[in-house]
Specification:
two-stranded antiparallel sheet; 14 helices; globular
């Protein structure tokens, strides 16, 4: 198989926080605590056991792992290269005479036209999905929340499937990606509008509306599969399984712009999510507009998640598992949780992509299939661990 691309605590009044605080904290993390400074400003402190040194160490390890995996990922493929040659190629491209250049005649072209776009797309998609999951779990105070709960994935699949059926199996990859992006955004907006009542959006109503819209979208996807030609049907199924095989520099540019914007916006609103973890009444008492915060989070999640699936297809469990893993490492404070989730999400998806390309000779396994095979048992382990230590999340 040749290496190529295919299209494709207490609150401010001294009362105890309500039960949503426990859900927001998640497994393995203590509750944040509100602290009022001399100027009246409110902040949320993480427990002393999750000190700065531990957080710094986790960030450093994650960054080192990301760099190492990026070099390994760029070296994996049919054209033989080594991580040292990958680093040397990058150094020479920026004007530094360091390290060896690829020995294979096609090595340099392969790196810059095929592998580097795929590596960067994996990093951005992983960061986008993990950040979206951390935001949803924080704003819903529900550890089971992930981007699919508000219809992003299902809507994207309907949009992509519709274009594939109308345009045929060889429709342009950009058309599929654009349709997936629009479908995800429209479905998210529909879920949000249907769940609003009397000017407010309740968490339970929004989640149940998402379940209903996801079910309806599933029926539409089944209908598209039924009427599609055999070739188009195969492409729809392959898109739903997820893959980075069609990565291009243009795709990297679009996804990077949306992902970086979304992650920065998530970091900005992180302190308010920490206050929301104290409970809605406590958060309102501390000046948080809860309804506006939820609207902002849903918009950010829609952008992040649709950007994550538009060019890569449906990739499951990254947005669900990574925030749990981060809470186990550094605690539940969103000012640390969100940027570290983005970083570890990039590491997880990059590692998964390396596995997808190397586990079976001359084959590129569907990435969504691999993340599901790994994420499902891992999530079951999290459930068992939490019930054993804390009696569950309820």
């Amino acid at each position: 198989m040749s290496e190529s691309r295919t299209p494709g605590s207490t609150n401010g009044s001294g009362t105890q926080p309500d039960s949503s605080t426990s859900a927001a904290a998640g497994p393995g993390g203590a509750h944040p605590k509100a602290v009022t400074g001399s100027a009246g400003a409110v902040s949320v402190d993480v427990p002393k056991s999750r000190g700065k040194s531990r957080t710094t160490a986790v960030f450093a390890v994650a960054i080192a792992a990301l760099i190492g995996l990026a070099l390994v990922s760029a070296a994996v493929g049919q054209v033989p290269t080594t991580p040292a040659e990958v680093a040397g190629s990058i150094a020479h491209r920026i004007g530094l005479d360091w390290g060896p250049m690829p020995a294979h005649p096609a090595g340099e072209v392969t790196l810059w036209e095929v592998r580097f776009p795929r590596v960067l797309l994996a990093i951005m998609v992983g960061a986008a999905l993990a950040t979206a999951g951390a935001l949803l779990q924080g704003v819903f105070a529900n550890p089971l929340a992930e981007p699919g709960v508000i219809g992003v994935s299902a809507g994207a699949a309907v949009g992509a499937g519709t274009v594939i059926v109308i345009g045929g199996a060889f429709v342009a990859a950009w058309s599929v990606a654009a349709a997936a992006f629009v479908g995800g955004l429209l479905t998210t907006a529909l879920v949000y509008l249907l769940s609003r009542s009397n000017g407010r959006t309740e968490v339970v109503t929004l989640i149940l509306t998402g379940v209903a819209v996801n079910a309806f979208a599933g029926g539409l996807i089944a209908f598209l599969l039924f009427i599609a030609s055999p070739a188009a049907r195969d492409q729809i199924v392959f898109w739903q399984l997820g893959s980075l095989n069609g990565a291009t520099w243009d795709a990297v540019w679009v996804v990077s712009t949306l992902t970086i914007t979304g992650v920065l916006a998530a970091i900005v609103i992180a302190p308010r999510l920490d206050l929301l973890a104290l409970g809605e009444s406590a958060a309102r008492h501390l000046g948080v507009d809860v309804d506006q915060l939820r609207r902002n989070v849903i918009v950010i999640v829609a952008v992040l998640a649709t950007a994550g699936v538009a060019f890569s297809g449906i990739i499951l469990f990254v947005g669900l598992i990574v925030p749990h893993l981060v809470r186990m490492l550094v605690g539940p404070a969103h000012r640390v949780l969100i940027p570290l989730s983005a970083l570890i999400g990039a590491v997880v998806l990059l590692a998964s992509d390396v596995g997808a390309r190397s586990l079976v000779d001359n084959a590129d396994l569907p990435l969504g299939m691999l993340t599901s095979l790994i994420g499902g048992p891992f999530f079951f382990w999290l459930l068992r661990r939490t019930r054993a230590r804390a009696g569950g999340w309820g």
